[in-house]
Backbone:
């Protein structure tokens, strides 16, 4: 009770200070009196001025959002962004009506010029990059300045048409500018209080943040606002004015998280010259100057990779280095993207502070796969069916150094959901050209989708595939008749899973044919792995194929193929974290082992260790949960040693990501 009284007392003290400072006896009474006075004395000119201010700045905000309509997150008709903008327009009007006319005009004109420039910059930059402008990229302005003239010329004519309307509205508003002759302190402070209340109220419309890391945190409005690291979602959510001030605050004012002395000492030791490791082994450079295709296979569990279900993928094993004890584990929300993150940068979603991997797109990753391969003059591109805004992929892949993110969905070439079929990753003409018609060597990162839930004959991918399988029989049926026909097939969940996996396999067949056709078959390495085990299937299906009671359920395929490679089987335990250093070594790309969490799995010095989301671990021999070995007896000293190693890897991973430590190393 005492604390509560103290808090009320503190609030009263704050209010009394405001009253004393500005000689306001009753804020509520003064606010009501102010608006009555405005209503009574509002001249026609003032009303017209307010109207044209709202048109000028409101249209600026709305137009940016409409011109970027391909961003599906928070469309223009969602109120939150517009409410933020109204709040700032009210504040601007409050300042203008509270200070002398000449000063008010300076404020008004300067504000207009700043946001008119931002209107052009956002729209033109979005036209060339599909991303809005952020103050964080000002350091790169010189690199893009040579192309900005072309970008202006190629921009949508509507940018300039709407700009003319905005400028005309602004000029008209000047004719009705208020004729204030004195500075009104009380009025100004009341407007500021109204602004703060409106701003606070608008933030409440964002709802609550996800505290737990779930797959859909990337689109939770409050999480998007709190993280504020996806420019497209941020501006779509908050509107032009809140976005501008918050972006400026985060980039120039907000204090960066600081390493403690202990943490700094730990990282200095990890990245000291004494820990430099440049390994060479019998695999180093085996596939030097090869093209590389990463095949991230959605939901292709180990029990699906059979000659019967996936003959094309299975046939690759006879010429592959196969990692027989591989685990695609998931930590954090978004298991598919977690694998993308690990394979591309060699780090995993942090264990000890709540942030998803896809929100780390402002971190520096100088030793990402894309950056190292581009340094070798490779073209580096990524191909997927889904939109670039999903998991903020377009921004993340750009941040990792990719040349471009290609999306079937964003292309606008598909009227229905055909893009969910993996075949179009190869059959799409634009994708085909971008994949194979390169000058020089290339890395193509291909993310499949077709083996994604739901696994029912009447919905989604399975239905689309059955429509192709029975095309002649159903061509004259309506939607309901087709549904009845598909139901009559009596397909089980597992039947649909296998049919969808066959679609992914069909794409692999198309890929191999394309490599042969383009003369690339003998100079291309395919790195194939699952993003995760098929956890979206029912326990009934999964338990008939594998033990689902422990984290070892994460066992999935991983193999590296070349046309002339010999079949090799690696029995050491591996995870997604091993893929990047292993592939770099095979390509003969020099790297320092300390840059990554894990090692080249083909090196004789590799210490196997897979760490699961609950910090249980498996080293190929011992599976330990909460310090207790579940599959065999372990010596206490060995257990302690392994546990210390796990703690070391997790601490390195978390601190590097939390404090963006590579930025400090590179500065």
Residues:
């Amino acid at each position: 009770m005492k604390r509560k009284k103290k808090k009320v007392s503190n609030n009263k003290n704050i209010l009394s200070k405001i009253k004393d400072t500005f000689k306001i006896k009753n804020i509520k009474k003064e606010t009501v009196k102010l608006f009555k006075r405005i209503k009574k004395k509002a001249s026609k000119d003032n009303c017209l001025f307010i109207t044209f201010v709202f048109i000028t700045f409101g249209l600026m905000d709305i137009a940016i959002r409409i011109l970027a309509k391909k961003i599906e997150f928070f469309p223009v008709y969602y109120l939150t962004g517009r409410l933020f903008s109204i709040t700032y327009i009210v504040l601007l009007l409050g300042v203008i009506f509270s200070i002398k006319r000449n000063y008010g005009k300076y404020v008004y004109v300067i504000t207009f010029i700043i946001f008119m420039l931002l209107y052009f910059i956002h729209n033109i930059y979005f036209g060339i990059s599909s991303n809005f402008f952020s103050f964080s990229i000002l350091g790169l302005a010189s690199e893009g300045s040579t192309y900005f003239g072309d970008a202006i010329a190629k921009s949508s004519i509507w940018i300039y048409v709407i700009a003319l309307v905005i400028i005309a509205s602004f000029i008209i508003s000047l004719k009705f500018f208020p004729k204030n002759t004195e500075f009104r302190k009380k009025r100004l402070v009341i407007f500021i209080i109204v602004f703060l209340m409106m701003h606070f109220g608008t933030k409440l419309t964002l709802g609550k943040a996800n505290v737990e890391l779930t797959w859909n945190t990337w689109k939770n409005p409050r999480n998007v606002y709190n993280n504020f690291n996806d420019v497209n979602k941020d501006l779509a959510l908050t509107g032009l004015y809140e976005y501008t001030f918050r972006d400026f605050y985060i980039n120039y004012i907000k204090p960066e998280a600081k390493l403690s002395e202990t943490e700094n000492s730990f990282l200095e030791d990890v990245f000291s010259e004494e820990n430099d490791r440049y390994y060479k082994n019998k695999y180093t450079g085996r596939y030097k100057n090869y093209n590389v295709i990463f095949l991230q296979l959605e939901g292709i569990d180990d029990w699906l990779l059979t000659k019967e279900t996936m003959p094309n993928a299975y046939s690759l094993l006879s010429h592959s280095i196969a990692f027989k004890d591989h685990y695609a584990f998931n930590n954090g929300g978004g298991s598919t993207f977690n694998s993308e993150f690990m394979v591309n940068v060699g780090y995993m979603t942090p264990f000890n502070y709540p942030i998803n991997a896809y929100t780390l797109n402002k971190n520096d990753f100088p030793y990402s796969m894309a950056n190292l391969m581009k340094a070798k003059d490779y073209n580096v591109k990524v191909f997927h069916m889904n939109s670039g805004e999903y998991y903020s992929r377009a921004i993340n892949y750009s941040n990792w150094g990719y040349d471009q993110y290609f999306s079937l969905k964003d292309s606008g070439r598909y009227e229905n959901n055909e893009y969910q079929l993996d075949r179009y990753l190869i059959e799409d003409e634009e994708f085909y050209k971008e994949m194979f018609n390169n000058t020089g060597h290339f890395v193509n990162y291909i993310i499949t989708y077709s083996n994604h839930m739901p696994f029912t004959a009447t919905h989604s991918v399975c239905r689309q595939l059955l429509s192709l399988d029975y095309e002649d029989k159903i061509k004259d049926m309506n939607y309901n008749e087709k549904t009845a026909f598909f139901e009559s097939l009596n397909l089980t969940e597992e039947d649909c899973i296998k049919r969808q996996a066959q679609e992914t396999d069909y794409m692999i067949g198309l890929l191999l044919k394309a490599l042969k056709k383009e003369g690339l078959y003998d100079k291309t390495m395919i790195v194939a792995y699952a993003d995760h085990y098929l956890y979206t299937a029912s326990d009934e299906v999964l338990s008939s194929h594998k033990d689902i009671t422990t984290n070892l359920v994460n066992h999935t395929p991983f193999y590296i193929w070349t046309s002339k490679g010999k079949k090799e089987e690696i029995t050491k335990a591996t995870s997604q974290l091993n893929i990047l250093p292993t592939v770099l070594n095979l390509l003969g790309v020099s790297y320092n082992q300390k840059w990554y969490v894990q090692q080249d799995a083909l090196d004789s010095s590799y210490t196997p260790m897979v760490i699961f989301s609950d910090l249980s671990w498996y080293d190929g021999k011992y599976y330990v949960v909460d310090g207790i070995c579940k599959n065999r007896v372990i010596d206490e000293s060995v257990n302690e040693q392994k546990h210390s190693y796990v703690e070391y890897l997790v601490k390195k991973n978390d601190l590097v990501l939390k404090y963006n430590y590579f930025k400090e190393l590179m500065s």
